[in-house]
């Protein structure tokens, strides 16, 4: 390797060293204070990124796509692993009722509220659907940091595992409705959503079934690290190649393994063991990709959108929990616990911007700006809710 090639690696290696040390500092500070690690890592990324001191070289930022897919697929495996038969028997009704209620109420309430404050109904419908998206990685890490256990946490993990699927359906319906309101013909978006969800579930079953039978044989009762990594990358790679949701595919693989691998004692121990370094880089680079200036550009419409989403999550969580017969003291806590919002929302906004180019600026500015807000305050709300439920 030549001197020029090695010289170009220096800033990348320095950046990686700094990012891992930032992760260590965030982890330590999070353990000793009430501050969420996710928020601290995102804040580090914002300060070090292009919107701040611009300390992270482009070569390191280019890894964000790879790291985000890897980290989120690992999270999906762990969330799917939470859907074991015992959890579904005990909390399946609550998971289904709360996830459907919170997605439905969020989409309808945010859309109606934005329409009431003057936004055209087509754009309001699309933004209402985008507001349903959550942040599985941030929510999962907030739960882990809280140290809380019990029925509320089990139900919350199950909701996070499936609510983005309902959100994708809501988004497809909203786009079709918006196209109809604008005089265009819709329908393709619904077909695409059905193919993406159905394809991800089919891929998860196709990979999960043999994985449940074959993994954990070389080291009895526990898959090896190489087995775990191989399965994560295989799932993510095939999902991207087939253009289906790698989140839903990973969740399905995890659910199949935890329910079918009778010989496993700790099916996802190795993923839990190696996940944190990937998460550190993912959250810091996610923060570096955020533009805090978007918050200042939101104005009254952005404040209305944020307030409507918070209120809708509270109402939807309470309604679903009440329908499911959840304990009274937990009903108002599901909404705050599900406030984090991240990349799924931005992905929806990018699709909507392509479908409605004349409304792209409004959709992207509102979504990206409020994503910065909910990325920063959402994990704190999740930690507060799960700790309050455990009292």
TrEMBL record:
Keywords: Membrane, Transmembrane, Transmembrane helix
GO terms under biological process: proton transmembrane transport
UniProt key word Membrane: yes
GO cellular component, one term: membrane
Topology of the protein relative to the lipid bilayer: Multi-pass membrane protein
GO molecular function: antiporter activity
One family name in Pfam for this protein: Na_H_Exchanger
Gene3D superfamilies named in the record: 1.20.1530.20
Alphabetical list of InterPro entries matching this protein: Cation/H_exchanger_TM (IPR006153), Na+/solute_symporter_sf (IPR038770)
Membrane-spanning ranges: 6-26, 38-57, 63-83, 95-117, 165-185, 197-216, 228-261, 273-290, 296-320, 332-351, 363-386
Residue ranges of domain Cation/H+ exchanger transmembrane in the record: 20-379
Main location: membrane
Subcellular location: Membrane
Protein's UniProt name: Cation:proton antiporter
Organism in which the protein naturally occurs: Rhodosalinus sediminis
């Amino acid at each position: 390797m030549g001197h020029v090639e090695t010289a170009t690696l220096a800033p990348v290696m320095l950046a990686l060293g700094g990012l891992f040390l930032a992760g260590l500092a965030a982890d330590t500070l999070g353990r000793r204070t009430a501050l969420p690690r996710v928020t601290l890592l995102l804040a580090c990324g914002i300060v070090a990124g292009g919107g701040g001191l611009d300390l992270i070289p482009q070569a390191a930022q280019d890894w964000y796509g790879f790291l985000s897919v890897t980290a989120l697929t690992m999270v999906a495996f762990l969330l799917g692993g939470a859907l074991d038969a015992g959890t579904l028997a005990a909390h399946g009704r609550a998971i289904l009722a709360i996830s459907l209620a919170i997605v439905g109420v969020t989409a309808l309430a945010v859309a109606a509220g934005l329409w009431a404050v003057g936004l055209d109904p087509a754009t309001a419908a699309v933004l209402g659907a985008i507001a349903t998206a959550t942040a599985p990685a941030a929510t999962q890490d907030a739960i882990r940091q809280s140290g809380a256990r019990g029925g509320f946490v089990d139900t919350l993990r199950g909701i996070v595992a499936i609510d983005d699927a309902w959100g994708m359906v809501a988004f497809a319906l909203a786009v079709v409705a918006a196209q109809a309101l604008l005089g265009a013909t819709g329908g393709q978006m619904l077909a695409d959503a059905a193919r993406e969800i159905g394809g991800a579930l089919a891929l998860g079953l196709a990979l999960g079934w043999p994985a449940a039978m074959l993994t954990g044989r070389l080291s009895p009762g526990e898959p090896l690290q190489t087995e775990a990594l191989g399965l994560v990358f295989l799932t993510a790679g095939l999902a991207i190649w087939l253009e289906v949701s790698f989140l839903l595919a990973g969740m399905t693989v995890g659910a199949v393994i935890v329910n079918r691998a009778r010989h496993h004692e700790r099916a996802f121990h190795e993923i839990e063991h190696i996940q944190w370094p990937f998460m550190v880089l993912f959250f810091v680079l996610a923060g570096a990709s955020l533009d805090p200036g978007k918050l200042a550009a939101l104005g009254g419409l952005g404040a209305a959108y944020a307030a409507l989403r918070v209120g809708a999550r509270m109402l939807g969580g309470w309604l679903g929990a009440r329908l499911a017969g959840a304990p009274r003291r937990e009903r108002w806590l599901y909404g705050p616990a599900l406030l984090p919002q991240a990349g799924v929302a931005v992905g929806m906004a990018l699709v909507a911007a392509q479908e409605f180019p004349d409304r792209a600026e409004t959709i992207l500015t509102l979504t990206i700006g409020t994503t910065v807000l909910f990325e920063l305050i959402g994990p704190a709300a999740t930690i507060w809710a799960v700790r309050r439920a455990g009292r």
